[in-house]
Amino acid sequence: MDITFIQDLLVRGVIGISDRERSQPQDILINLVLFGDVSKAAQTDRIEDCINYRTIAKKITAYVERAERYTVEALAADIARLSLEEPNVIGVRVRVEKPGAVRFARSVGVEIERFRDSKTTPAMHQAYILLGSNIEPEVNIAAAIHRLKESCVINAISSIWETEAVGSPGPRFLNAVVWLSTPLDLEALKKQILAPIEQALGRVRTPDKNAPRTIDLDVLIFDDRVLDSNIWQRDFIALPLAELRPDLSHSTNSESLAEIAQRLRSTSSAFVRSDLQHLSRLR
Question: Where would I find the 7,8-dihydro-6-hydroxymethylpterin-pyrophosphokinase domain in this sequence (predicted)?
Answer without folding.
Answer: 209-220
